[in-house]
């Protein structure tokens, strides 16, 4: 694998939600392209273990920042801690869904989805994009979801935030294109990650639906600078097309909600 991403965007990438799943896979693939990394997540021990592995395997520099992106003071700490690094690639990956019927979980948890999935990436993007525009180069990736195409039962707040990211990311790409800053939004479908299991989704019940993080990340990195948004996986692209173009919204929502509920803990439905 060449280091074309490093050549195009610069020496450092910052990845949120980097301790597992898609975020950890972004770290692995970018380290393979000799990018130095700033890894951000809540679990410090997981970050340390990943940083040690990547720095040893790929001979790159890896900084870690243990932070809760729903807290303003932690967002400010990320900006301050990265001031001495030329961050040319920002991966807004951190997110949460908390699947389940809207009233089955607290209002605070539902609002935290908005804080993490929308407010945090907006704050970090505003900070780092400003520096990218000054340097006349940079790249930004938003991790949205195929659920962004419609309101999705049992992940209503999550789908709404991912719809926001899709709209925002494609619009921002138009604004920043003249400054030589690339913006791509990835719309993964169901992906086999630790987050899915932690949030009560049993990926073994419908194994054919779930992609591996490595495939999702590979598609996303290859799309950067070429496409404003991309949906990894032929099945997910077909699902997105059918739900947004073929079926009525009501039918698509019923079908999606039924599929999701089958893989969830029944206490959440």
Automatic annotation (TrEMBL):
The keyword Oxidoreductase applies. PROSITE patterns: ADH_SHORT. It comes from the Bacteria. InterPro entries: NAD(P)-bd_dom_sf, Sc_DH/Rdtase_CS, SDR_fam. GO terms for molecular function: oxidoreductase activity. Belongs to the short-chain dehydrogenases/reductases (SDR) family. This is Short-chain dehydrogenase.
């Amino acid at each position: 694998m060449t280091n074309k991403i490093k050549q195009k965007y610069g020496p450092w990438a910052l990845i949120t939600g980097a301790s597992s799943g898609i975020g950890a896979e972004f770290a692995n693939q970018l380290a393979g392209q000799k990018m130095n990394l700033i890894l951000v997540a809540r679990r410090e021990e997981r970050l340390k273990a990943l940083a040690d592995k990547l720095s040893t395997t790929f001979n790159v520099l890896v900084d870690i920042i243990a932070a809760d992106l729903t807290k303003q003071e932690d967002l400010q700490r990320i900006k301050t801690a990265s001031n001495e690094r030329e961050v040319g690639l920002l991966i807004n990956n951190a997110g949460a869904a908390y699947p389940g019927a809207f009233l089955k979980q607290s209002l605070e948890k539902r609002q935290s989805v908005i804080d993490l999935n929308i407010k945090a990436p907006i704050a970090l993007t505003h900070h780092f994009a400003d520096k990218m525009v000054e340097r006349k180069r940079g790249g930004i990736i938003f991790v949205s979801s195929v659920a962004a195409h419609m309101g999705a039962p049992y992940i209503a707040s999550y789908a709404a935030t991912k719809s926001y990211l899709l709209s925002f990311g494609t619009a921002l790409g138009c604004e920043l294109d003249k400054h030589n800053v690339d913006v791509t939004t990835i719309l993964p479908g169901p992906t086999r990650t630790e987050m899915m299991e932690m949030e009560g989704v049993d990926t073994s019940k419908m194994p054919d639906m779930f992609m591996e993080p490595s495939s999702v990340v590979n598609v996303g990195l290859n799309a950067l600078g070429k496409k404003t948004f991309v949906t990894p996986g032929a099945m997910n692209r077909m699902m997105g097309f059918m739900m947004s173009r073929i079926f009525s919204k009501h039918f698509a929502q019923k079908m999606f909600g039924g599929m999701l509920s089958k893989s969830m803990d029944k206490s959440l439905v």
